[in-house]
Amino acid sequence: MLKIKYFLILLLLVPAIAFAQQGVVAEDLGQAVDLPALIKQCEGCHGPKGNSTRDDVPKLPGKPVAKIEESIAQFYYYERHCLTKTPEYDGKEGNPMDMCAVANSLSKVEIQELAEYFSTQ
Ligand code: HEC
């Protein structure tokens, strides 16, 4: 009887796991990218459209797409300093963060789309 119970639980779990994995694939295909929300996060430190007004945060517009992608990859692998900064959203301070944490929260497709956006602002 106990064995049947475990078998039934397993039967329920298999589709759940398969569904979870599909979610990851969907994100990698760019279907789950919320670009405006991501841009807003970047703007908390990099300023409106990446035109930073802070001395401690670089401007992003005008940099080639490939250069922006490369910089984010360097933060992703902790090859550059990860200075903690406090973002500001609508005049209010957000939670302190650093670029390595930001880079590690992004998917490949998100990095690509953000680089294309900020490069041309
Ligand atoms: C908490 C503040 C903060 C947030 C949020 C943030 N950044 Fe940064 N970013 C920085 C700081 C500070 C640097 C400079 C770090 C250094 O050079 O040591 C930087 C550097 C960069 C660089 C390298 C620029 C260069 O020319 O050297 C890129 C590209 C970049 N950020 C993109 C982004 C993107 C895209 C987002 C949004 C997903 C983002 N950043 C969110 C603070 C932030």
Structural commentary:
The chain has helices at 2-28, 35-46, 65-76, 99-104, 108-119, and strands at residues 88-89, 92-93. The chain has 121 residues and is mostly helical. The protein folds into two domains: 1-30; 32-119, Orthogonal Bundle (Cytochrome Bc1 Complex, Chain D, domain 2), CATH 1.10.760. Strands 1-2 form a two-stranded antiparallel ribbon. Bound molecules: heme C.
List keywords for this structure.
mainly alpha; binds heme C; 121 residues; single chain; two-stranded antiparallel sheet; 2 domains; Cytochrome Bc1 Complex, Chain D, domain 2
Major beta-sheet overview: 2 strands, antiparallel
Using the coordinates shown, work out and report the CATH topology of the largest domain: Cytochrome Bc1 Complex, Chain D, domain 2
Q: How many strand units?
A: 2
Low-confidence stretches are 22-27
User: Which percent range describes the beta-strand content?
Assistant: under 5%
How many separate structural domains?
A: 2
Helix content: 55-70%
CATH class of the largest domain, named Mainly Alpha
Classified in CATH, the superfamily of the largest domain is: Cytochrome c-like domain
The appropriate CATH architecture of the largest domain is Orthogonal Bundle
The backbone outline, from C-alpha atoms, is elongated
Order of helices and strands: HHHEEHH
